């Protein structure tokens, strides 16, 4: 049984937020951090509390870095029970993750590479008015906690039209997501069977069937890890690329579809390889109902190097159930309407890759599926959207009689920030807020029982 009342809602619920703000924070001292946590905790809701109803208009999430838990006063013995990759943080592991060149932490713009990053408050809201209310509330809290400094913040905005999620390049998103055993999520055809909760939530059996050790239970139980990635999308460059490689609008759409593995409508190329089918694109019951091994072993429909075929090779990968990731997050920056020249403003995706094991899930995806130039024997390719591109790599589109090979693929995205966070369960947040044992904190702990 999942302890829904102890799991932060974001892990299990994809809320219909259209706007919001991420606030990256640093604690000058333990008591300031704990005072902030004690208060914001009142607004953090569990998976049991959050239903997606019309009345639900804002959603607050709190996650901490390893340095953040230390800054709150967590003892060294307990801190040492967390895995080394989380202790080190994303920036320290950049070389191994392939975050080099323009994507290297030295170039990140939001202060997330530094050791003083301690926490993130994720304030999601349904509309601008509610967002304004949440931001004011949080700003008020910060004025009462002068020892808590804002390192940076990021304003989030969905892109019009708002009836479905898509990114700045125009692709429909939020189509494929793993289903967790014990939740009410619908396992749409092709999503795979429900996975054991331990793949995403600490303290539960996972797909290995083996015992599932975790860091100190008081902090880790019902928690998860977040790999945060702020990826700027160079929309002008992407549109120029499509124009260069497709003579007609239809050819350009096909090139866009080949890079992703889905048409921008969301329709998967495996099911409609020649012509887009927007109705299929929006039909969650049908638009994941495909595999690759039998239908498209050589990538004539979905190139082996396309984004979705890399990020979920489905029946062509071993151990796929141990590599799934939950995706949360939002787009940021202004929409660039079709036909308008690039205005040079930053826009992109600020995403959290959610998993129970950073090495086995996120880091594996990052350094094998995304950045290994020879993944699937492709020779000289990386993921066309989130691989580190330096202008020397290719993208091959298998085709009879002759395949198409695009050389000198430009970087459509640049990594602008990143971090590893731990998303504690509600009780663990109360425990951390109550460290230090002063009277206020003790009372708080009592209340949390
Ligand atoms: C700016 C960069 C990125 C863009 C534009 C992008 C866009 C998309 C889109 C449009 C889809 C298809 C919709 C869907 O299947 O839900 C998708 C799928 C996916 N993406 Fe990304 N993505 C980006 C970065 C990443 C990163 C960094 C990761 C993980 C490390 C990731 C992991 C996935 C996964 C796991 C899927 C589902 C594939 C499937 O199950 O078939 N993406 N992405």
Summarize this entry quickly.
The chain is α+β, with helices and mostly antiparallel strands and 449 residues long.
Tally of strands: 10
Which ligands are bound?
Answer: protoporphyrin IX containing FE
Structure class: alpha+beta
Shape: globular
Total helix count?
Answer: 15
Write the layout of secondary structure elements.
Layout: H1 9-12, E1 19-27, H2 30-40, E2 58-64, H3 66-71, H4 76-79, H5 84-88, H6 94-97, E3 119-125, H7 128-144, E4 148-157, H8 217-220, E5 224-233, H9 235-245, H10 249-260, H11 278-281, H12 307-311, E6 326-332, E7 348-355, H13 359-370, E8 395-397, E9 404-406, E10 413-423, H14 426-433, H15 439-448
Antiparallel strand pairs: 1-3, 1-4, 2-3, 5-7, 5-10, 6-7, 8-9
Residues 167, 169, 171, 173-176, 229, 231, 233, 260, 262, 307-308, 311-312, 325, 327, 349, 353, 362, 365-366, 385-386, 413 line the site of protoporphyrin IX containing FE.
List keywords for this structure.
449 residues; four-stranded antiparallel sheet; alpha+beta; 17% strand
Can you describe this structure?
- The chain is an alpha+beta fold and 449 residues long.
- It folds into 2 domains: 4-230 and 418-448, no CATH class; 233-324 and 356-415, no CATH class.
- Helices cover 26% and strands 17% of the residues.
- It is built from 15 helices and 10 strands.
- The strands form 3 sheets. Strands 2-3-1-4 form a 4-stranded antiparallel sheet. It has a 4-stranded antiparallel sheet with strand order 6-7-5-10, with no helix packed on it.
- Helix 14 (426-433) packs antiparallel against helix 15 (439-448).
- The longest helix is centred in the N-terminal third of the chain and has 17 residues, at 128-144.
- The mean pLDDT is 94.
- Bound molecules: protoporphyrin IX containing FE (HEM).
- Residues 167, 169, 171, 173-176, 229, 231, 233, 260, 262, 307-308, 311-312, 325, 327, 349, 353, 362, 365-366, 385-386, 413 line the site of protoporphyrin IX containing FE (HEM).
